[in-house]
Structures are given as C-alpha cells and as structure tokens.
Write a structure and sequence with these properties.
heterodimer, A: 290 residues, alpha/beta, Nucleotidyltransferase, domain 5, 6-stranded mixed β-sheet, 8 helices, 37% helix, globular, B: 232 residues, two-stranded parallel sheet, 12% strand
Chain lengths: 290, 232
C-alpha cells in the first residue's frame, strides 16, 4: 500500500511555548491520546500548555505514544523522568507503557473542550477518526451524559478519508472545496460508507463535479451527526473537538441543520483529548503528593 | 456481467448476450420481468418482481426441498423463508450496511492484498479464527491491517473475516427462523470460505448449485414471467 498517495495526511507537527521554562514548573504533567487514526502528546507546566505533538497513529499503540511524547519533548531538554504524571487516553490508552494512569477519551475530551473553548461549553461533539461522541458537560468540564457511535464509519473521520481518497483530494481541503458549489445538492443517500462510495462514483460519472460530490457527502455527514446530537439535546454553548472540527464543510452544514453556532476554537481541536488528559493528570498528581 | 453505472445499458447488453446464445431475437420474447437493485432502470421489461420473490422462485425450482434461502450479493444479504411452492413466508434484508455482503469481502481482500477469488481457498487453509471487533467494512479494513501487523497468518485472517460475515448473515437467518433445507444463492456463494463458515455457524449443510449462483434470482424472474404470460 506504500505506493498509494497518502491523501489523508494533514499536517503532522510539534509546538513549544517559548514563554515557559519547564524548570520553573512545580508540576509537569503529560496527556497522551492514542487514537485509532491520530496520536497527540501534550505537556503542561502547572496547568499551562507547554508543548505538544500531533501525528498519525502507527501500527502499535506503545510505539505511537512514545513517538508522540518524544516529539513533543524535542529540543526541550525534558525527559520522561521529569514528567510527574502522565495520563493516557484514546483507543490505545491501556497500551501506553510510560503512562501512570488511563482515562476514557470521553472524560478527557470534555475536560479538553473546557480548556480550548472556555467554561461556558455545555455540549461537546467529538468527531474522531473511528467514532463520534456527543456529550453534555457541566461548568467544570465534567460529563453529565453522552452517546456515541463507534460501530459504523458513517459520520467519522475514517469515512471522510475514504471519500477524500476516492476523489483524490487531501483531507484538509475537503471542507473548503465542498463549499464551492452554487447550489447545495441533495445529501448522499447511502448511510454506509462503502455504498456511499459507489453512489459517489455514479454521481461523478453522471457529470457531478468533485466539489458537488463533496458537498453532498459533507451534508450527509452533518445530518447523521446532527441526529446523534439531537438525541442527547444541544444546550449552548456548543463546541466541536477532534479532527472534523477543522472541516468547515461539515461544521457549517451541521450548524445549519441544528440552528446552533459552534464556538470558534483557539487551538487545534485534535489536541482536546490529550489536553484533557494532561489536566486530569494534574489533579491526580496533586492528590498523590498530598 | 458487472452492472457498471448505466443499469439500463447493462441490462440490455446482458439480455442481448443471452439471446445470442439461445439463438433468439428480442421480438420473440413474450414477457420480460426485471428484478434486483436496478430493476426500475430496465425500461424494456414489462414488469418487475422484488429480489426476495425472485430469489425464492429461482431457489425452489433448483432445490424443491429448500425452505430457507440465503441470498448474499454485492451490496445486500437476505434470508428468506419459503413454503413448498416457493412462496415467501417471511424475510429479513440487510440493505443499509455493507457488513456481511460481497463488498465487505472485496474490501477485506484488498486489505489482505489477495484477489477476491483467492479469499475462499485461503480461508480453507486457515487453522483458527481470531475475533474481529469491527463489523463496519471500513473499520474492519483497518483491523485487518492491524492483524497483519500482529503477524496473524493471512489464511487465519481470511478465515476470521468469513466467520465474522457468517455471524452477521446467520443472525438474519435465525431472525427469520431457519427451516431445513437451507439453500444458498448469490455471487458470494462462490466463496468456499464463506460457505464453510456459514455451515459451521448454522450447523447445516448448504444446498448449492454447481455454478451460476448469481443467476438464480434472474431464473426466478424468468419463471415468474412465464407464469404471467401463461406459459407452463
């Protein structure tokens, strides 16, 4: 499969906050979110964002976790021993050898959403690689209730990647391209991604542009996710985390279907799980030291 | 032949090819009945029947003792309970999701890097099955890649894929209430690995045509056309 062009590839990157010197920090915590598609590592100094890295998940969880944290620590002089407490989350959370604790991604995303969007968030939609979760949270970022779809690729990042691949479009461009249509087409009618793909090929053959097909798919995704959210009830403020929060084609259509605007993110939404894990790790580290 | 994207044209080409072999012309046909996912596109047909009725009628013709018909095609799986005349008593269809259909195996063969034809024989060489967590065809593809990384043999993976599919289709058979004998039709019946998995799962020997599994519903439609036209 290596000869295939990797159209899924969003930017893999790391970042460090130049205003912080970790040596001054009382408590250094890390959150590592090993998802089914992407992995993130976040390092926090006394609850402030210090460094992070985001990359594609490799074949094994331990290796992916280690690579992500190594990349986040790059050029900082930090070693794993300097980190007081590490929390693992995500699909591969039980398989992170250097983590002190594992917490579900639901709790972590809720907490991370509070950090990224502020304490006014009451409804969080996490659209990840292989699942989609709708959560209601309180002002502390604690989960009150949630529902999720992790059985079916419709409405997930993987499903969108299948479409991006089919159309030869990079995953980062899907949203923008899908908005370049004069008129909003009918959504793709098949739920199953496999069937939707067949449907899309038919639409292309009948003369639809790539943009129109993407519009039809983003619209179908938005409706599917909206029905998940409506089951739990959307209360303001509404925020989206995970990779698809960066897809303006899905987000704008979802806002339209729900009649609710999503808050604008101040940070990369793919980091929400790892940020939440690092923050929850801080509370745990404090508890242990007392 | 593959349907392609122009269903009307595909139907016509298939009909013309069959007429040629039979040494007939289109004008000599008294009645044409269409069935299948693209039945509405067949403008030259004088009527249509559902896939379920066509499958039942075709199956009872070839297997008079069949009371349950399992029909697994590219995008649909169905279990049909029939009486001794081939009339449909009850049925269950999976039409919303690719899990347990031909396109599922196609996706898995791609992930395994083998041809669709090889899947069956490869599966028969498998010694054990490993549990597959994903039912979704898209997620299962990633899972197959993980299994390859975990150094599970391709034969065992193929066996596991068919076991997972059989679990899905068998659940439909149980929902409709399985009665012996059980016939299997549709293109996926060519896949010996899947047939074996179904036989293991349902603990029953399948009635299978020697070949032409994918023609049986068309045969059913032709028999229904004959009845409509008053031909006996």
């Amino acid at each position: 499969m290596s000869e295939e062009k990797e159209l899924w590839r969003w930017k893999e990157y790391n970042w460090r906050n130049p205003a912080i010197d970790w040596k001054d920090a009382a408590v250094i915590t890390a959150g590592v979110d090993v998802g089914s598609v992407s992995s993130q590592a976040v390092i926090m100094c006394d609850g402030e964002l210090y460094a992070y890295a985001s990359m594609r998940t490799a074949a094994d969880s331990p290796g992916s976790a280690l690579k992500a944290i190594d990349w986040a620590m790059e050029d900082t002089g930090l070693t794993l021993d300097d980190i007081h407490f590490t929390v693992g989350t995500g699909y591969g959370r039980v398989n992170i050898p250097f983590a002190d604790h594992a917490i579900t991604e639901i709790a972590c995303h809720a907490r991370g959403a509070g950090f990224i969007y502020g304490s006014t968030v009451r409804t969080v939609l996490d659209m990840g690689g292989q699942d989609c979760k709708a959560m209601r949270i309180d002002e502390k970022g604690k989960v009150i209730s949630f529902i999720m779809n992790d059985k079916c690729a419709a409405g997930t990042g993987r499903g969108l990647e299948v479409f991006a691949n089919l159309l030869g479009v990079s995953i980062e461009e899907v949203g923008e391209l899908s908005l370049q249509v004069e008129e909003e087409p009918e959504p793709v009618s098949s739920t199953c991604v496999v069937f939707a793909k067949t449907e899309a090929v038919g639409l292309l053959r009948s003369g639809w542009s790539k943009e129109k097909v993407l519009a039809a798919y983003c619209s179908a995704m938005a409706r599917r996710v909206a029905s998940l959210l409506e089951r739990i009830g959307v209360v303001d403020d509404f925020a989206i985390t995970g990779g698809i929060a960066k897809n303006v084609g899905v987000v704008s259509r979802l806002e339209k279907v729900l009649g609710v605007k999503a808050l604008k993110p101040k940070l990369d939404t793919q980091l929400a799980g790892a940020i939440g894990a690092a923050l929850l790790g801080r509370a745990l580290a404090k508890k242990i030291s007392h | 032949m593959p349907s392609g994207f122009d269903q009307e044209q595909a139907a016509r080409e298939a009909l013309l090819a069959a007429l040629k072999i039979a040494g007939l012309t289109e004008a000599e046909l008294v009645c044409v009945i269409a069935t299948g996912a693209g039945q509405a596109a067949v403008s030259f047909a004088s009527g249509t029947v559902t896939e379920v009725s066509a499958a039942a009628r075709g199956a009872i013709q070839l297997f008079p003792q069949a009371r349950t018909v399992i029909d697994v095609g590219a995008e649909e799986g169905r279990a049909v309970k029939i009486d001794e005349t081939g009339k449909v008593v009850d049925f269950v269809i999976n039409e919303k999701c690719a899990a347990g259909t031909g396109s599922f195996v196609e996706g898995m063969s791609r992930a395994l890097g083998v041809t669709l034809e090889e899947m069956g024989t490869l599966s028969l060489q498998g010694e054990k099955t490993v549990p597959m967590n994903a039912q979704c065809a898209v997620f299962a593809e990633s899972e197959v890649v993980s299994l390859i990384h975990a150094r599970i043999s391709k034969a065992d993976i193929a066996k596991s894929i068919h076991a997972a599919m059989a679990g899905r289709i068998s659940a439909m058979v149980r929902r409709v209430g399985m009665q012996k004998e059980v016939a299997m039709i549709g293109g996926v019946a060519y896949n010996k690995g899947f047939v074996q998995a179904m036989e293991n799962e349902l603990e029953v020997k399948m009635l299978l045509h020697e070949e032409y599994h994918e023609y049986i519903s068309a045969l059913g439609a032709a028999l229904i056309a004959a009845e409509k036209a008053g031909v006996n």
